[in-house]
Amino acid sequence: MQNGGPAIRLQEGFPALKLRGMWFWRERYYQALQEAVAAAGAFPEWAAFAAYCTDCQNGLRRQAFAKLDQFIAGLEGAAFAERQRFIRWLLRQADPRDGCHLLLPHPLRQRVILPTLEEWTRREPAAPEPHRWLGGREHLQRALELDPKDELARGWFIDCILKEVGYDTHELPGGYLGNPEEDLTALAEAARAADACSQPAARQSAHERIGQLRRVIEDHQRGRSNDSLHPAAPDANP
What we know:
Blueprint: E1 18-19, E2 22-23, H1 27-40, H2 47-57, H3 61-76, H4 80-94, H5 100-103, H6 106-123, H7 129-134, H8 137-146, H9 151-169, H10 180-195, H11 200-229
Antiparallel strand pairs: 1-2
């Protein structure tokens, strides 16, 4: 999400402006909000959320979050089924698209989405969907255990491992931030998940990315082995 024009801060109360024919937000951000307004309009009980999205479109941040707070206050005390229905709709609406952070603002995530997903896992232990949306390696692995055909969870699970290993290796050759053996084990787990991808292109891409990281780790291990076989000569002039 780094491409596009420079960020422009709009003054409070001003509508989103067009500069050189482009929205201050990328057009796809605007489209995500617009589609959410249209879809939420079918549910009168979600009117405050639709109003939040409309104000976001118009750059009215303060008004938008006031309406969001109103919506959250009403939803927090609602029955589980009502909260579940909303977040199931919202998460599917938001993913995968640019601008999803506007549809999933921090107060809504913390006060409604995450607590409801956690409650969902307790109420329906055999349901893979809440684990998929909670994300993280353990939840995604659980989602795949419950539904081995969940391609969305599979892709996220592989990405999660690759990001973790990528972080551990990103300072090489200066230093390794994790445990190489554990990371190789994790990559083997990602490779097994990739083997089950239903789409050949996705399977090939995953294996290429896994192979690149595996080679980085193996090169690091060979370098350490060579260092141990050929230690540096002591300084002749202490």
